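Dear colleagues,

As part of the handover before I leave the project, I'm documenting each prediction I ran so the next person doesn't have to rerun anything. This entry is a single chain, and its sequence is reproduced below.
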Amino acid sequence: MHVSLAHRTYICSMRFIKGILFFIIVFSLLFSACKKDELLTDPSAKLDFSTDSVLFDTVFTTLGSTTKIFKIYNEHSQTLNISRIYLAGGSSSPFKLNVDGISGKSITDTEIMGGDSLFVFVQVTVDPTGVNNPLLIKDSIIFETNSNIQDVKLTAVGQDVYLHRPNHFPTNGFPPYSIIGCNEVWTNDKPHLIFGYAVVDSACTLTMNPGTRVYLYNGSVLWVYKDGTLIVNGLKNQEVTFQGTRLESYYQDVPGQWGKIWLSKGCKNNVINYAIIKNGGIGIQVDSLGAPGIPTLKLSNTVIKNMTAAALFAQGSWIWSNNCLFANCAQYVAALTVGGNYRFEHCTFGNYWTGSEARETPLLLMNNYYVSGSTIYVRRLDSCNFTNCIVDGNLSEELGIDFQEVQNSYSFFFDHCLLKTTRSISSPTLYSNCLVNQNSAFHNTVVGDYRLDAGSAARNAGIGPVSITRDLKDQLRPNASDLSIPDMGCYEYYP
């Protein structure tokens, strides 16, 4: 086919123009890429940070901390090269760094594109110091950029502990455990940290002095074995505390952080006075009877709260309790099961659980049986007496009375108590001078404050004379002999 000279000239011109355009586009892309990658070297260009300091709550020796996070920002339009990020304390620093996925005590040549940011992760581990008092630990993360020196300060409180770590590892499925020294006394000079199961062995006694602090790791248990004894000798303002190892403010009321205190079958003469037990699975589990004629557990002036299962879980036990607060559990605050013998005076049972899953169980459960396979075994509830107590929560029915109707198989009695229930309380053999569905007017259940406000129906509604002369706050209770009547519950109202 014949192509004219003019047409060939046109085609060549178009090819030339396309070539020029292609060259311009490629040159522009290369130029912009080079410009984009060009580093900002101006000494006045600095980094910005989401915080100027990182503070860790108390960190126990050997345990390590939670991870703290902050961000580095490049607010400039060009890329900045951080020539070095390092810990001022060097290789001996107890802190650890991870910057943009790279770990180390010193990290070099980290680039941040213009308008971008990077995450910095920090942890700290405290070596045993042999010092009882908390130790303040400080360091800094240094950032060198274009000869600029910037820093983020690090502060942690390290605490040496008495460490109870498993040294027995059964192969029969039982969890790892350690055995506490027979007749050991725990003091308040530094905390006790329990991993796994810590066992009070048979015929041994563990005594805790006023102000002792016990921290239990995830799932850990303090187990009092057959014929063993636990004595908790707290005092007002020197309570013995049991809680989890997470001390950040976020976790101060979070349940399920540790296992339980387990007073197992056959242990005896246990005494807990002035204790705070919080944020576990079960506060105290008490199994079966101990020594004949002596309560398995005397429990007084104690707060047990924020449990995933129950504050007090008893199975055929003998418990005498006064001036105690059982509160805020995902299921029961007190489950008194498989019979037993129980006596509660001036106790408050309160449950205004607000967890992610609504509570469906009444806060107080009493029963006289257990089920094994298809067989029901009845165990007599010899007595379960409540005097000057409050049983109140956010369900319409807070009394779980679940008995096998076998002759003389149970006996319970509420005397001068405030009860949240839909049940009839007309039987004089079961209830005496009780208030039903009246306003307890607790001070602030959201923060777990179960003191009585002025409008509480529990005020001046108890019965005297009282043997428990002081309340949980160590305030004096009135006595019926002077025509004053005590309040119900563990707290006496004071303006």
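Residues 154 and 224 are 41 Å apart (CA to CA). Confidence is low (pLDDT under 50) at residues 31-36.

All the best with the project,
I.
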